[in-house]
Amino acid sequence: MHDLTTGPAVGWGPGGPVIVAVCGKGGAGKTSISAAIVTELLRDPARRVLAIDADPAVGLASALGVEVTRTVDDIRSDVIRQLESGTHTERRELLAHLDYEVFEAVREHGHLAFLAIGRPERQGCYCQVNDFLRDIIGTLVGSFDAVVIDGEAGIEQVNRRVLEKVTHLVQVSDGSVRGLTVARTIQAVAHTAVAYEQAGLILNRIRDEAEAQTLAVPAELNYLGWVPEDDAVRRSAMQGTSLLDLPPGPFLEAVRTCLARMHLPAALPATRSRACGDGSP
Length: 281
Ligand SMILES: Nc1ncnc2c1ncn2[C@@H]1O[C@H](COP(=O)(O)OP(=O)(O)OP(=O)(O)O)[C@@H](O)[C@H]1O
Ligand SMILES: [Mg+2]
What we know:
alpha/beta
């Protein structure tokens, strides 16, 4: 675990991917903002982007128009079932095969790759399998320029089930006191327990600058900006269309402005994909 008092997070080092985890209160707009971040990162067609849906309800998949056939949890459940009935030799073989299974579960959608984590772990300790899976996701992530993780409310689930470290923690809140309280709690947990380099807060579904000004955002949340209620986003949800097809408009523009305050995507070296060969996982 990274102790923020001792300096910057470990990160993935120079040339490693930018990993953005999106967290916040239920319904605040995590999935919509994650999809907008993916859209923004995909504007450079040379960039390889991996979207990870860490929400058991797989909301990001439908927001991006991706069909999920197999989740990491499906793989985990299959392996555990086989381990419980198998021999010691089979156990080694099964675990050795896990990376292939995870790579197979990645859906390709143009320049976008997609992985769904699935349901939270069930009872029982299968630490070795869990650790293996997290290591495999870590290896997979290293083949991309940028990774966007649509998390559950808190970052600790992302930390436990997906990756131990991210580079950017983006919190999403609506203008409610409850949303900002949840954001403070997530930030406090992240500050002590999770490795990240930068964190920031996006206020979603705000009417205008005057309304944004009335909200007392705690300084420790590193306010990045506000995103308006956008009819195109509402329509997309009502019609079940992919947010990747959203035309340029106030929603995407506002998310872009917020990202720029975290130096994204500028922080991504243009040469990164070349440094990783063809970037294939
Ligand atoms: N800026 C916006 N303008 C219009 N509609 C929005 C906006 N942001 C989010 N919504 C809508 O609000 C609803 C909830 O958003 P979203 O699913 O992104 O939230 P969430 O935080 O991922 O929710 P959950 O916690 O259930 O996963 C969706 O129907 C989405 O279309
Ligand atoms: Mg969601």
